[in-house]
Amino acid sequence: MANTFKTITHDVMPASAGTPETLYTVVADSTVILLGMFLANVHTSQVTASVQLVSTTTQSSQTQNTTAFLVKSAAIPVGSSLSVLDGKIVLNEADVIKIDCSVADKVSVVMSYMEIT
Length: 117
What we know:
Blueprint: E1 3-13, E2 21-25, E3 31-41, E4 47-54, E5 68-76, E6 81-83, E7 89-91, E8 96-101, E9 107-116
Antiparallel strand pairs: 1-9, 2-8, 3-6, 3-7, 3-9, 4-5, 4-8
């Protein structure tokens, strides 16, 4: 198994306010450890942002996963950023991270993770 540290960035998201945009989808035959995520407000006024984990995987003897929020409608003041994670989160194959913001194209995102293949 190879462990590779990676970062994904997106200058502004989402394309349309109220419509979560995909930042990252876990590739086939991989597990990902989400290490950190920062959202920065690049607007001239306060925005609110949400991060969703879309998952339909099922672990042994468990109920199927559903979409869950890592953060929902969190206020980010002008010129500020928000650290979304306090710990680590495991993502399974085909899990998706989506970003939404109260104003289109006004949140910049940096996500660091370790991909296990």
